């Protein structure tokens, strides 16, 4: 039986070239979301000049690359070798699964994920526990992901309920080929703070910029002026 990790690794390996061809501007620097909120503008990680920073689900690591001249040390990992192959040469990257991080306990001052890994993880609690483990106590964790409301307005004709927690694709033989997972606002609160290892400091819902005309699946000017497509959680490690 194909696991979600195996399915998504194969999916992103196959789609890496197409993904980079379709989204060159977004992948050119450290953008938190399709609304093109830049870390240089948002400062969600704060001053990282003396910090070791981990990017979770880095893809081709455009965010990690941007941090190289700003952080004391910045590294990232991704499950997809195909995505990592598109990264700039010389970046300190590894191939790994977010459910089993290959880093020592208390290894990093800060960690973040800009639409990386978390929408594709069936076991959110395990992934967050791993992030908490590798973060130093009181370390900052920032996560941007699909806004829960956006789930019910997909970019294909599939009908999804706000209370559906997964979208799965299978081939003709019944093998899983793609897996994406949804969390409600209540799910996120319980996972991060209610029963989880973090203390929520802020929740951000970026507005769609008036001058941004890009349509990217579920993200577009028409939808963006009506409701948010991204949610960003800013947290502290409470371990």
UniProtKB/TrEMBL annotation:
<dbReference type="InterPro" id="IPR050508">
    <property type="entry name" value="Methyltransf_Superfamily"/>
</dbReference>
<dbReference type="GO" id="GO:0032259">
    <property type="term" value="P:methylation"/>
</dbReference>
<dbReference type="GO" id="GO:0008757">
    <property type="term" value="F:S-adenosylmethionine-dependent methyltransferase activity"/>
</dbReference>
<keyword id="KW-0489">Methyltransferase</keyword>
<protein>
    <submittedName>
        <fullName>Class I SAM-dependent methyltransferase</fullName>
        <ecNumber>2.1.1.-</ecNumber>
    </submittedName>
</protein>
<feature type="domain" description="Methyltransferase type 11">
    <location>
        <begin position="54"/>
        <end position="143"/>
    </location>
</feature>
<keyword id="KW-0808">Transferase</keyword>
<dbReference type="InterPro" id="IPR013216">
    <property type="entry name" value="Methyltransf_11"/>
</dbReference>
<dbReference type="InterPro" id="IPR029063">
    <property type="entry name" value="SAM-dependent_MTases_sf"/>
</dbReference>
<dbReference type="Pfam" id="PF08241">
    <property type="entry name" value="Methyltransf_11"/>
</dbReference>
């Amino acid at each position: 039986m194909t696991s979600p990790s195996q399915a998504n690794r194969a999916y992103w390996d196959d789609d890496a070239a197409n993904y980079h061809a379709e989204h060159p501007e977004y992948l050119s620097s450290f953008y938190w979301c399709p609304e093109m909120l830049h870390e240089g503008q948002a400062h969600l990680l704060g001053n990282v000049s003396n910090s070791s920073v981990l990017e979770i689900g880095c893809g081709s690591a455009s965010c990690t690359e941007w941090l190289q001249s700003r952080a004391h040390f910045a590294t990232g990992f991704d499950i997809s070798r195909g995505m990592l192959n598109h990264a700039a040469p010389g970046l300190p990257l590894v191939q790994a699964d977010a459910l089993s991080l290959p880093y020592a306990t208390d290894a990093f001052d800060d960690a973040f994920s800009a639409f990386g890994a978390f929408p594709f993880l069936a076991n959110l609690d395990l992934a967050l526990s791993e992030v908490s483990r590798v973060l130093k106590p009181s370390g900052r964790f920032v996560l941007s992901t699909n806004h829960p409301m956006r789930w019910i307005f997909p970019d294909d004709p599939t009908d999804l309920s706000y209370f559906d927690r997964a979208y799965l694709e299978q081939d003709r033989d019944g093998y899983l080929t793609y897996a994406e997972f949804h969390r409600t606002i209540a799910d996120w609160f319980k996972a991060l703070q209610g029963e989880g290892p973090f203390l929520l400091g802020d929740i951000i819902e970026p507005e769609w910029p008036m001058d941004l005309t890009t349509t990217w699946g579920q993200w577009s000017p028409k939808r963006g002026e009506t409701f948010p497509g991204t949610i960003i959680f800013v947290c502290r490690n409470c371990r």
